[in-house]
Structures are given as C-alpha cells and as structure tokens.
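Can you give me the bound-state structure? Components:
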Amino acid sequence: MIELQNVAMSYGGSELLSEMTLKLVPGSFHFLTGPSGAGKTTFLKLCYAELLPSAGHLALFGQDVRALGRDDIAGLRQKIGVVHQDCQFLDHLSVAENVALPLSVARRPVDTAELRELLGWVGLKAQAGALPPQLSGGERQRAALARAVMMSPDVILADEPTGNLDWEMSLRLLSLLVELNKMGKTVVIATHDLNLIRTAKSQVAARVLRIANRRLQLAGADL
Amino acid sequence: MRALFALFPADLSGADRVVPPTGFTARLTLLTAAAMAFLAVFALALSLATGRLAERWSEALARSATIRISAPAEQMQAQTRAVLEVLATTPGVATYRALEPAEMEALLEPWFGPDLPIDSLPLPQLIELTETSAGLDADGLRLRLSAEAPGAVLDDHTRWRRPLVAAAGRLRLLGLLSLVLIGGAMAGMITLAAQAALAANVQVIRVLRLVGARDAFIAGAFVRRFTARGLAGAGIGTALGMVAVAALPATDEAGGFLTGLGFAGAGWLWPLIIPPLAAAVAWLATRAASLRMLKGIR
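Here's the bound-state model for the whole set.
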C-alpha cells in the first residue's frame, strides 16, 4: 500500500529523515511517536506525497511517486484520508461542506443521511452549518477526522488527531479509527499520547514506530 | 431534523463553491470586460461602417463617367454630336446627356463666383453618362471616341475611386485591428485578475490538493467563475455600447462620414457575438493562468 525503501528527506541541505524502510500493508494499524521536531509530520507528508523523498524509493499503492504526475497523485490521495495537524479547512464553506469536500472533489454524490450520521458521531451535528473559524480547536480536529474518513479511504493518516480533545472524545475517535481498521483500512496515527497508544493496543494489534535520530525504529516493546 | 436539513446546501457537490468570493478580482474582471466590450462595439461599428462606405463610394463612382470635349469653337458642336452618337450605340451605357451651360456655370460657381460670363470662356463641353449594371468597356469606348471625336476624353473616375476605396479599406482594417487589440488587452487584464485571485487562494488550492483534487477540478472552479464574470461584464458593455451607437445622430440629419458610424439592418446582430467572444477570451486566459500556477503546488 505504502512502501518506503531507504527513504531520506532533506530540508535545505540538512537531512531530517534517513534510511527509512517500512511497508504499510492493508489492514495494519501503526502509531508513530517521537520527540517534537523528529520528523513525524514530514514522514506523514511523504506518505501522501506532499513531499517527495530526496533519496530512496517510495511507492504508493504500488506506484513509484517520482514517476507520477500531479493528477496521478491527486487520484491516489482520494484513497488516503489525512487529518492534518492544523486541520486546513476552506473557511468560506460550512463544516458540512468541508466534511463532504472529498466527495465533491471526486464528483461523487453526497449522501446527506450518511453525512449527518458521521457529523453526529464526531459530535458536530449542531455545528454542521457553522463556518470553521467558529469552531474550537477540538471541534476542528473532529471535523478534520470526519473529512478524512468521509470517502472511506484505504489509508488514514492522522497527525496528532487527539491533541486538542478531552479523553472521552479521544477515546471516541480512537474507537472510530479502530472500527475502520477492522473494516480493513490501514491506519497511521502520529501522537505523543502514550495512554491513547496503550488503550488502542488493548483493542487492536497496533505496532508502534518511533522516529529517533532521523531513523524509524520499532518501539512496541518499550510500551 | 428539518432545521438540520436546512443547514446543508442543496448542492454540496457544487465545484464552483470551493473558490471563495473575492470582491476585488470580481469587480476588476466585470469592469474590464464591460469596458472592453463597450469599445469593441464601437470598433465593430467603425469596421462595418467603413465597409459600407467603401462599397458605396466604389459603386457610386464605378457606375458613372464623364466625357470632356476640348475642341475649337467651330468644331465643338460637331464633336459633341459625334460623341452622343457613339454613346447611343455603345453597350453598357444606361443614360447620357450633355451638360447645359447653366449646369456648367453651377459647377464653376464655387470657384469663380456667380454671374460667370460662361459664353466668353473656352470651356470644354461635358457629357455625363451612367453605366448599366453590366458596365461598359472603357478602353473600347476610348478607341471609338478617339476616332470619331479627337477632342473627347473619357474619365471613368478610376483615379478617384481607387484611393477612396483603398482609404475605406484601410479604415475597415483599422477597425478589425482595434477589435484584436481590445481582445488582447482584455485577455491580459483578466489574466492578471485571475493570477491575483489564484495567489490569494493558495491555501484553498492546498486544501483541495490535500483531499485529492486534480488540476482540471481546481482550474475549472476558477475558470468557470471568471468566464461567467467575463460574459456578464461583456453583456453589460455590449448593451451600453449598442445604446450609445443607436444614440448617434442619423446620417440623413447631418450627412457627414462620422454620423454614418453605426449598424444597419442585420448589422445590429453583429455586436451580439462580443459577449460569447469575451467569455471565450476569459476562459482561455484564466485556464492558462490556472494551469501555470497549479504546476507549482503539489
């Protein structure tokens, strides 16, 4: 699904990530941890081809990202749901329209009942008509997660999705991601929250990856 | 539940809504398209009017000719008679007549004033003729006149007609060139407005990319908006231009060339192609600007 072989990423001449080798198979569940600035967000950006590796081989759904055009990458992103750290919404559209945006972009019809159900699940039914700037930080993260799963993507990449949420809402969102994983979706969550990781490991066979010293390590045994 | 339904717009898949409304570029595009369409109406009117003028001058001068007889006084009458006899048997001559002394006096009056003693002046005799629609063989007529009336000279107005028709043709070309320049200027200004709108919406484009939007989707949203603005602006400008042209004084009131600037008959339909053309220019300009900019955003 997503395969990295000796991938390196450099910014302005200095190497931020190096020798990263990983294969995300369908139905796998991964947590990504590491200190701030270790490169977790950069790693996720590589996984949805917003960034291209400066060295190594990166393939999305079996296709080498270097050989893909912008439209090819856009097509692949329709199979990847991304929860960005800073959420990123279209501020002139309502929450409902933002959540339905992946469907609009893919020119698919919007099932309003399904959309309402999803908004209800993330606790945003009452905010469906509100504009994103009117939402709190936690509400924005919930809306971003709803948008990421709206298309029922094959892969869900979430960058600190529970950073602004209370524990109860964090657990609800984790349950949603676990349910999606049980349906065969591949999930990668970048987080600092060890309690969340421990809780998840009791529900799903999650692997924990850690970025340290620019390299990716399997850290499950440490938790 | 009904209240909740009301919160969802009817068309959530409306691709054009992904571009936020931008007042400055919207107004600029609308105003540019309106102003350019207004000017285009006048350029088109000039082009069509000069076309008609060239045709009219050409036709009026081509259908008439003058024969001038310069001969000693004692031969004048005989040569005039000989010319009239030649004209009577020349194919392509519709009417002909020798000008009366009073008519000759009227022709000279603007230069020499009234009460001209025309009898005492050695003036040539003028014979005016008009051609049939088939036209006459001017060279053949000249040959016959040189044989029958050596003092007769045929002037078929060619030397007047050619420069007049050429001038009118150039004016028409100027009108068409103006239309091309107006179209180019409009494309340039709409491109600038589109680039400003795209630059102001880089974050929107990034979000659309994040959720898997292809170039055609993003460009299409901008292109449709600018095309609609171009069409609306050009529609307004064209309507105002047509009203302004219609308000010009009529030709028969003043009779000058400039007052003949306007549309005639079915010619009033020509300005109606300006709004679709402006929309096409806006479509092309915005699409090119959008695709150029999207190349830089992954």
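A couple of observations. The interface with chain B takes residues 48-52, 70-71, 73-78, 80, 82, 84, 88-94, 96-97, 100-110, 112, 115-116, 125, 128-129, 147, 151 of chain A (CB under 8 Å). The helical segments of chain A are 40-47, 70-77, 95-99, 101-105, 112-121, 137-150, 167-182, 194-201.
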